[in-house]
Amino acid sequence: MIQQTLVLIKPDGVQRGLIGEIIKRFEQRGLKIIAMKMCRVERSLAEKHYTEDISKKHGKEVREYLLDYITSGPVIALAIQGSDAVRIVRKIVGSTYPGEADIGTIRGDFAHVSKEYAKKKNQGKNLVHASETEEDAKKELALWFSVDEIHDYKLAVEEHIL
Ligand code: CDP
Ligand code: MG
C-alpha cells in the first residue's frame, strides 16, 4: 500500500552535517520525497508533535528534554511516500536507542547512545524522527506541512523499484 510518512532530521543531524547522508538513504531505497523544508520549531508545534503520550511512555523529564531539544536549532522536515513507507522508513532509521540499533540503519551507523545512558539522563540524541504508525503519520504530516507544500511527481525508478 502506498503510504506517506513524516521524517524530521533533528538538530543533532543538522549540526553534524548529516542532512545529505540521511536523505540519501531514503532516496536510494526508492522512496519519494514529496515535501521538504528547514525550519526553526515553535514551542507550540513541538508540544503538538511530542504529546503527553511521550510522558506516559518515557516520563515527564524526557518530554521536557525533547521539547527543549527540538526547538534548540533548525530541523529538516520531510514528507516521504512509497510502498509500505511507514514501516520501511522506521527500518531505515533503526531502533530508538542508537546503541541497540542495527548497523546499516541511520541511528546504528551515526550514533551510539546506549539505552542505559538515555534512561539515566532522560535524553537520547538519535538524529531522526519517523512516524510510528499510519495514523500518527497522517496527524504529524498535517502538523508540519500544509497541503500546498506537498508535491507529487513520477520518480524515474518507480517502474523498477515499486
Ligand atoms: O523516535 P522513536 O519513535 O524511536 O522513539 P519514541 O519512543 O517515540 O521516543 C521519542 C524520542 O524520545 C526518541 O527518538 C528519543 O530522541 C527521545 N528519548 C529520550 O531522549 N530519552 C529516552 N530515555 C527515551 C526517548
Ligand atoms: Mg516515536
Fill in the keyword field for this structure.
162 residues; binds magnesium ion; single chain; four-stranded antiparallel beta sheet; binds cytidine-5'-diphosphate; alpha+beta
Description:
The mean pLDDT is 96. By secondary structure, the chain is an alpha+beta fold. The chain is 47% helix and 17% strand. A four-stranded antiparallel sheet has the order 2-3-1-4. The longest helix has 11 residues, at 60-70. The protein has helices spanning 11-15, 19-28, 43-49, 52-58, 60-70, 85-93, 106-110, 115-121, 134-144, 158-161; strands at 2-9, 32-39, 75-83, 128-130. It is globular and about 50 Å long. It has a single domain (2-146), classed as 2-Layer Sandwich (Alpha-Beta Plaits), CATH 3.30.70. It binds cytidine-5'-diphosphate and magnesium ion.
